Amino acid sequence: MTKEKNTHHQDIIATNENDVQTKWYHNLKYLLIGILFGIVFVKAEIISWFRIQEMFRLQSFHMYGVIGSAIFTGMISIWLIKKFNIKTINGEPIIIAPKKFNKGQIYGGLIFGFGWAITGACPGPLFAQIGTGAFVVTITLLSAIFGTWVYGYFREKLPH
Q1: 23 in the Ramachandran plot: left (φ > 0), alpha (ψ -120 to 50) or beta?
Q2: Where are the alpha helices (DSSP H) in 25-156?
Q3: What is the spatial distance between Cα 158 and Cα 160, in angstroms, rounded to a whole number?
Q4: What's the rounded Cα separation, in Å, for the pair 128 and 117?
Q5: Torsion of CA 38, 107, 64, 118, to 10 degrees
Q6: Residue 14 pLDDT level (bands cut at 50, 70, 90)
Q7: Segments making up each domain of the chain, as ranges
């Protein structure tokens, strides 16, 4: 695979990020979007432990509707990116690599689902949960960070 200048792939480490010099306040937009995202999570009850338990007990459609709408939005977005050859904000082409199925995805999905069911949190709303005062979720956040580190450490030895 040839690599064009300023083109990123999901499995490589970007080296041109240091070439971009920005002021510290340019990152405020990410903070504001994150706060808005957290407010939406709270208002939609996505961070509710009780809503998550209802989902895993098949007692409510609420979370399935949220997840389903996210999947639908993602599908439409990917289709639009491919159809109109949309580029990043920096003008770089967006390359979506084909994915091959393997049994590690089943194991990973099961581990993720069990962790989600036990803790009542997936990585997206962790900060929103902490922001609402559920400080015990800090343990889940630290566990997620540690799990990510463990995966990175053993990545080359795992089936992909």
Answers
A1: beta
A2: 28-43, 49-56, 62-84, 103-119, 126-131, 137-154
A3: 6
A4: 18
A5: -60
A6: low
A7: 16-157
